Amino acid sequence: MCGILGIVAKSPANQLLYDGLLMLQHRGQDAGGIVTSQDNTFHMHKGRGMVRDVFRTRSMRSLSGNVGIGHVRYPTAGSSGSSAEAQPFYVNSPFGIVLSHNGNLTNAEQLNQELFRADLRHVNTNSDSEVLLNVLAHELQSSTCNFQLDPSTIFSAVAGVHKRCKGAYAVVAMIAGYGLLAFRDPYGIRPLVFGTAETDHGTEYLIASESVALDTLGFKLIRDIAPGEAIFIDEQGDFHHKQCADKSSLNPCIFEYVYLARPDSMIDGVSVYETRLNMGEHLAEKVSKSMRHLDIDVVIPIPDSSRPSALQLANHLGVDFREGFVKNRYVGRTFIMPGQQQRRKSVRQKLNAMSIEFQGKNVLLVDDSIVRGTTSREIVQMAREAGARKIFFASAAPPVRFPNVYGIDMPTRQELIATDRDDEEICHEIGADYLVYQDLDALTRAVSKVKPSLNSFETSCFNGDYITGDVTQEYLDSIELHRNSSQPISRIRSKTQLDLSLVVSD
């Protein structure tokens, strides 16, 4: 899970990109980067940390030009989390290209070998995003004649990417001297939308992971980029699009609606907020059946993403809804903290329980999901320390039992609390008195209720069904091996020389 942006504007793009990345900060807090283009020259600044910490006045001034892309990173499988892997990535042959990517390639190792042995291309980091960039560069080189590009040639190259790359990917890229390219994998797993803004000088285009970035920057949401589709906007602002995949189908990641996306976003034509209200309704139905014998005094959400579900659940149960935890908004999302110890420490820093809402009560805590159990265990303990008599726990999502290989940081089964445990054992592990999970069928219906035509989802972390059809047990074992190893995935490395057309600011 990362956040990506791309813009073709009629005025300097740097401030728009910065503001847009702030709106996508929830999608990645590990690193950020912006590249702008002016007179066939790229201007780049990127680094570790939050957006507000990466970019300063001097670096912003150096990002000149009306066209640009941005990225906030959340490290996934195969990523070392080093500053060298901050995006966007750059390659100078056959054209100057910069690329930002959200997702995860499941055949990155195979592609890396092909690039080195057959395509004569060199990858410098462990990031699958750099692999994807080099595949795109090679396909552009194979598709061009006399090193001249037009939309048809670019779309032909994207079709080549679709044939070679497996997994989940939403991409924005800039080609020096040509314009902005964006495309989405043929299964539509990771989200990507675009919108426009009309100015006195013409139409501006903005592409983003979530519609909230468009809303806050004054752009009108046009639509989602379709699975397998590519759009290209040249530097003059002319818009082109084409379906580049032989076969495509829409299967958005269900976890976007559960947790990843902001509630004020629209993803594939569906309001995230409305789906979370529906999750609360379906969860209330199950709670009323399975917990009928329990006396619930109050429903308390675990901030923030579970709040709509908890509110709707309380309304349908006829139980008081209360805010029992105060959130410190200056601590990052614990789900995307890179280490287990850091997650555990951050829970106490992020949340504080108000005893007045817990003292002597039977409390139903509602969270969006339970992944590793670290946060849930700490929160249950906090509720007990605050004086709760009994603590019941409800998850708006089903048990997470399988690795996610499409860009979410839960790649090994041994890290998942639900692995080889039933509900009663999980309840014991987190220290609750009773635990209830949402059913997977109810979860998918919560989204389909908003948009009935959307009825297929990527749900592998709940049921082990990998929608792309290429994920084998051998692949899952290799991810687990690499994740548990103290050594990063080996790659052939060397220092690279940047093309003179690339200007990197301090």
Write structural notes for this entry.
This protein has about 500 residues and is of the alpha+beta class. The protein has helices at about 15-25, 50-55, 55-60, 110-115, 130-145, 150-165, 210-215, 255-260, 270-290, 305-315, 340-350, 375-385, 425-430, 440-450, 460-465, 475-485; strands at about 5-10, 30-40, 40-50, 65-75, 90, 95-105, 165-175, 180-185, 195-200, 200-210, 220-225, 230-235, 240-245, 265, 270, 300, 320, 325, 350-355, 360-365, 390-395, 435, 500-505. Residues about 485-505 have low confidence and may be disordered.
Structural shape: globular
Low-confidence stretches: 486-506
**What fraction of the residues are assigned to beta strands by DSSP?**
15-25%
Distance between the termini: 26 Å
Largest sheet: spatial strand order: 11-9-10-1-4-2-3-23
Q: Sheet with the most strands? A: 8 strands, mixed
Write down the overall mean pLDDT.
Answer: 90
- The number of helical segments is 16
